[in-house]
Design a protein that fits this description.
By secondary structure, the protein is α+β, with helices and mostly antiparallel strands. It has helices at residues 2-27, 35-83, 85-90, 96-111, 143-146, 185-224, 230-246, 265-271, 282-285, 288-296, 335-373, 377-385, 390-398, 405-421, 438-459, 490-493, 516-526, and strands spanning 115-120, 151-157, 160-170, 175-184, 250-255, 260-263, 301-306, 309-320, 323-333, 423-427, 463-471, 477-483, 530-535, 541-547. It starts with a helix and ends in a 19-residue tail after the last strand.
Amino acid sequence: MIVVVLVILVTTITRAGACQTSVMLRTSPLRAPSLRTHLMLLQVGIVLLVISVAGVVAAILQADAIRDSHQDRLIGVAESVARLPTIIEAFDDPDPATTIQPLAELIRQASDVTYVVVTDAKGNRYSHPNPNRIGEQVSTDPSVPLSGDIFVGTEQGTLGTSWRVKVPVWIDDEVVGTASVGVLESELRADLLEKLPVLIGWLLGAAVVGTIGAFSISRLVWRRIHRQEPEQIAELLQSRDALLHGVGDGLIATDAHGIITLFNDEAQRLLDIKEDVVGLAANLVLEEQLAALIATEPEGEQLVLAGERILLAKVSGATVAGSHVGSMVVLRDRTELHAMLRDLSGARDMTQALRAQAHEFSNRLHVISGLLELGEIRAAAQFIGTADTSASRTGAEALASVSDPELGALLLAKGAICREKGIELVIDDESVLAPSEPALSRDLITILGNLLDNSIEAIVHQGRIELLVSEEADASVLIEIHDDGPGIAAELQASMWNLGTTSKSTDTEHAARGIGLALVHRVVTRRRGTINVTSSDLGGAAFTVTLPPTLTHRKPAHLIAAPGEP
């Protein structure tokens, strides 16, 4: 019965929900049910299923409890009847039913059972609710109690199907009869149905609470995902991935604990990181300078070195509801821009040097013209013969042993700048270099260009720079640069290789200082070379760079491909 009632209950609620869903669908025939509706229906279905199973189990347990309570009462009544002295003594009377029947009816009414039947050893009744059945043979098998055991079970009798207990009646260790007590199965069902409304009420209450909870949870989830449907979320994720991994800038995002949550393709390329680092701590993956920027979140853009790349990093914090939830780093490659600016600065210096030379030659031509007009031909010839053109000849002769055209062009350009500033650039006669690999040539350009620029800027005007660049007997490359500038202060020597460290003033024209020496140090480190700075005999700084040969080519070493133009 309880199962039927619960099935009807579940079917009614399910049909009501289906009707409501059908109405919702009819109102918008072109739109599928939303995620919120799906979640609510799924949760309501689970709640109803759990409640139905729990209700069936509770009904079964309640039925078993009712049956067990009746069983205990039936056994107690049966044993009381079988041990009652009056009933035992009545078995010796000529008509035991005269004594036993009234007592049995009195006990039946007092104990609220369906019947109390006492029989002799042959199964003949001495009592029965229907007096006409007294003296008749019982309709069920009395062998179990007659054997001395207690029988408990359901049997079909003259009054109907009943839950009954049969116990033996003993006189001096001999079974002389049986006492049977029972209640109809219909009474047990009536007791269960009497308590079922309370159980159904609890089940309905649980269903209502579960439905309200399902509605609240589905609404909460819907609001937490910003009222977006799964298809919209998928499209947003696809667009986000396409945007973040296709953008030309490197993007790195970390959470409030410094764990990397985003690392796009451009960031991997700029930082030369091939593996997936999402989920790792930023200070374990990124270089110290970039990790420190993420931790401190400085304002504005900062120059950083990633390997030998010059990057522009901008860090911004992410705040939600007043709480710091992470940081976002935007990386832009400025390596090529830095090279272009350096080349532009070199071209500007070369232009100024050529303008100064043109002015000097113009003055000389004016002197020669004047002498010729005055008829001083001999004096004009002497003036022409004493004209100093040794600078260019000396430069060409000094660079004759440096066969690499790019290095030669670099040294000629630096020599022109030095002449314009009144600085004497002396290239040692022992400078012999013919790099056989392009990567070494590019690295030498980076090293020589930045070290010479550092010495030229340190001297400013009127000074001397001595340069030696040669390939040693063991195929290693040696570079020595001496100047008579102010030298490097002791407090800067420990940090001079760090990006941004400079002893010069920063102005608009030279805003990006503190890069050259850091870049030189990284190139030398990559090639497993050494770089030292000491005091020069000229009075300024002396830089000594040694680049060991590679094991395969016996030439100056390179460990990884050099990144484009430094």
